[in-house]
Every structure is written in C-alpha cells, then in structure tokens.
Specification:
four-stranded mixed beta sheet, Ribosomal Protein L22, Chain A, five-stranded antiparallel beta sheet
Length: 229
C-alpha cells in the first residue's frame, strides 16, 4: 500500500450545528475529551483529526467509524486494536490538520512557521544538524529549522515513542529541500501553504507527489453521509 497523506484546511470552519452533530457521532469518551478544551479552535482541530481518521478507516478498510477501538501504546501513540496492517498518525497546527495512513508505521508533523530564536536548535538538534542549520544563508535558516524540526517530530512519532526519545539522539540528513533520510527511514516534506511546513516519515512505501486536500466543510459532509449510511 502506498503512503496516503491528507490535509484539511480549517479556514472555513465548522458551523455550531456541524460541530455538535459530528461530536455527537463519536464514542462518549471522545465527546468528553472534546468538552475539556477551553478554546473552540483547539476542540475543532482535534475533532477534525478524529473524524478524518475514522472516515479513512471506514473508506479504505471497512472499519466501522463509530465502533473503532483506538488503543494506545505505552508512549501514548494511538492505533487500531487488532489491525497490525493499519497505521495512522495525525498532527495539527494553526489552520491545518494533517494525517498519514499506511500499512506500516508512519509519522507526520505539521508546523506553522513563526519567528523564533534559532539558538533553541542547540537544545534539541544533534551537533551535525546544528552545524548544517547555521551553515545555511541567514535568510533561509528559519525555514531550515522547521524542516529539521518537523522531520524529527515525525521521526519520533513513526517510532511511536513520542518525546520519550531525545531529539538529539538521531540526526537527519537532507537530500535536497524536500527529502531526507535517517537510519533506514525516509522523510518527505510538503508545504500546504507558504508559512507552513509538513514532514512525513516512513521506512517503506512511496510518498505521493502532493497530499490530498480537504476543506473542513467537505470532510464534514462526506463523514455525515458515511455515518448516516
């Protein structure tokens, strides 16, 4: 199975009615989690990520959206209990939610590019990466920081270990602007929008040329059709 990558743009968000209906279609535990968010935008990002995964599992594998049992490994990464051939990962930032679906382990991370003190790289990047970053032209260092960061985040998510593994414990090697490698793993980078960068990590499979793009409204409509069917 090839690697599937899906992105959802939230600029045209859900109506209150859509939000309530979609939330109500989820298992009670998920509904309760969404109610704990203080900010509506945070709850909406989480809801969109959840229904995107459930829709894809139903459409690709015939797994019932309402009854799918999401278990978690010891580090908190969710997976479909009893289906070793199904792997997914979700990330969100700002106006975007992203998901990778694959038959083997994969990780994804999306970040909005914002001005930061690049000295933070000393705390999180391997020495080779720090040298690489500060060896880039001054005007390009911020973009390269986020390419490195999203690759490393997607890498630990592919492993399913989260930040229990130090980001300094492995080093990403770039092969051009949009491709990188590390210890048998491959990374592909995308930019769904000018000020966002997204990285996907996997050991096998072919990356698509571009992710499949959804709007929140389109996803809500197709999910509702499946749920009612």
């Amino acid at each position: 199975m090839n690697i599937e990558i899906h992105t959802v743009c939230l600029k045209e968000g859900l109506t209150e009615e859509q939000f309530a209906r979609l939330c109500g279609s989820l298992p009670l535990e998920r509904q309760q989690r969404l109610k704990k968010f203080r900010r509506r935008e945070d709850a909406e990002r989480t809801l969109i990520g959840d229904i995107l995964v459930r829709y894809l599992l139903r459409d690709r594998y015939g797994i019932d959206m309402a009854e799918v049992d999401f278990a978690r490994n010891r580090y908190g990464k969710p997976y479909v209990d009893g289906r070793e051939d199904v792997h997914f990962n979700v990330s969100h930032s700002g106006d975007w939610v992203a998901c990778v679906l694959h038959s083997s382990a994969a990780g994804i991370d999306i970040e909005q590019i914002k001005a930061i003190n690049l000295d933070i790289a000393q705390r999180y990047f391997a020495e080779e990466e720090v040298q690489f970053l500060f060896g880039q032209p001054d005007g390009e260092q911020l973009d390269w920081f986020y390419r490195l960061w999203t690759c490393k985040e997607s890498g630990v998510k592919e492993e399913g270990m989260g930040l229990s593994r130090s980001l300094q414990s492995f080093s990403i090697e770039f092969h051009g602007v949009n491709e990188a490698r590390e210890a048998g793993r491959r990374f592909r980078l995308y930019q769904p929008e000018e000020d966002y960068v997204m990285a996907v990590c996997a050991k096998q499979g072919d990356f698509p040329d571009r992710p499949e793009l959804w709007t929140a409204q389109a996803l809500a409509e197709v999910y509702a059709e499946f749920a009612e069917g």
